[in-house]
């Protein structure tokens, strides 16, 4: 299993290809250690922090979906908050108006998110770079007012939003409801990560990488540009929708003000901080956008925005490749990043 790196520079997952032995072992050890810590964490922290960690994992899933889009195909999206909202409202509406089990809302949200992303990908095919970014940004700006339209109010709740009942731990498990939601989110996150890693090794992933690196050459080799661009856009939107559905279940409330373009910007910032094209970096990026604002408030409530901006600038200047840069350095130090020859 690879860790999802698509960068042309030396990076943590490269060892898995150039030196299958040590690189693969280091990758598995580190990922196993992180997973173990995440599994044990709820036993040592209070429920409020467990809830914060659940939100962290939800954001990590959304950022991973965005990273698949940008890291593999090179398409820049500033509108993934729209697909996040699609997933959240899909779950909330289903739970509010049907008797469907809350877990089943996740695949439904994924299907609807995939359809929305795939359809949006078609008119965006002619757009690249900043023009695609502006088109997706317009989608993020337009989504909240559309949700508030009177014609949809009977389903979305309009400006009042929708309340969702908090699910309890099944089968009498001796854990709190917050801990159950955390483990549910963690399980979904692991599945999404495995899917993303497998996708990068698949024919679709290789085709998207070829499109990112040289679209003209990829097209000449027979890669269907329109199909793969819209397909990866749809898959990315589906993952963002899964994250949105999980947020509706965890927060127990869905309101249009939660899905403004600021959310899209935060997801994009999280991807940059984690490292474009490096899937494990989604955890680091999500931690930055979830916990750093709280740290900034603790430093200065009146200047929290300025403190957050200063910390972001520091990360960009010191680590232009995000957390991926630190991981690459660690791999080299541990002997897993040495190049052949």
Structural shape: globular
Termini gap: 24 Å
Structural class: mainly alpha
- The tally of structural domains comes to 1
What does this structure look like?
It is a single chain. The model is unreliable at 1-22 (pLDDT under 50). The protein is 70% helix and 1% strand. The chain has one domain. The chain has a two-stranded antiparallel ribbon with strand order 1-2. Helix 3 (47-73) runs parallel beside helix 8 (177-201), helix 8 (177-201) crosses helix 9 (203-213) and helix 13 runs antiparallel to helix 14 (304-318). By secondary structure, the protein is an all-alpha fold.
Quick summary:
This protein is an all-alpha fold.
Features:
mainly alpha; two-stranded antiparallel sheet; 1% strand; globular; disordered N terminus
What's the helix and strand layout?
Blueprint lengths: L14 H4 L1 H21 L6 H27 L6 H18 L7 H17 L7 H19 L5 H4 L5 E2 L13 H25 L1 H11 L1 H6 L4 H27 L1 E2 L6 H14 L6 H19 L4 H15 L4 H11 L8
Antiparallel strand pairs: 1-2
Helix pairs in contact: 3-8, 3-11, 3-12, 3-13, 4-5, 4-6, 4-11, 5-11, 8-9, 8-11, 9-11, 12-13, 13-14
């Amino acid at each position: 299993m690879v860790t999802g790196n698509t960068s042309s520079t030396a990076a943590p997952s490269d060892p898995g290809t150039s030196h299958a032995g040590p690189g693969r072992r280091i990758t598995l050890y580190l990922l196993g250690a992180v997973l173990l810590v995440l599994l044990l964490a709820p036993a040592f922290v209070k429920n409020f922090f467990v809830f914060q960690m659940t939100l962290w994992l939800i954001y990590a899933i959304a950022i991973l979906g965005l990273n698949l889009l940008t890291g593999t195909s090179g398409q820049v999206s500033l509108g993934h908050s729209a697909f996040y909202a699609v997933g959240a409202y899909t779950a909330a509406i289903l739970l509010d108006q049907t008797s469907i089990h809350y877990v089943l809302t996740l695949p439904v949200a994924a299907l609807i998110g995939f359809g929305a992303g795939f359809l949006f990908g078609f008119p965006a095919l002619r757009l690249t770079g900043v023009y695609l970014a502006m088109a997706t940004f317009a989608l993020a700006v337009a989504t909240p007012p559309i949700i508030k339209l009177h014609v949809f109010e009977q389903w979305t709740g309009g400006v009042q939003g929708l309340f969702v009942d908090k699910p309890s731990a099944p089968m009498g498990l001796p854990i709190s409801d917050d801990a159950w939601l955390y483990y549910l989110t963690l399980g979904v996150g692991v599945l999404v990560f495995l899917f993303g890693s497998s996708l990068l090794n698949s024919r679709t992933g290789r085709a998207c990488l070829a499109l990112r690196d040289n679209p003209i050459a990829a097209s000449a080799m027979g890669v269907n540009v329109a199909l793969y661009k819209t397909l990866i856009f749809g898959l990315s939107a589906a993952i963002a929708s899964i994250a949105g559905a999980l947020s509706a279940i965890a927060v127990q409330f869905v309101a249009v003000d939660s899905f403004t373009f600021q959310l899209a910007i935060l997801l994009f910032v999280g991807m940059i901080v984690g490292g474009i094209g490096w899937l494990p970096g989604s955890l680091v990026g999500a931690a930055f956008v979830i916990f750093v604002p709280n740290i900034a408030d603790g430093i200065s409530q009146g200047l929290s925005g300025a403190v957050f901006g200063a910390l972001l600038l520091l990360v960009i200047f010191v680590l232009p490749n995000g957390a991926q840069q630190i991981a690459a350095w660690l791999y080299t130090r541990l002997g897993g990043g040495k190049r052949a020859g």
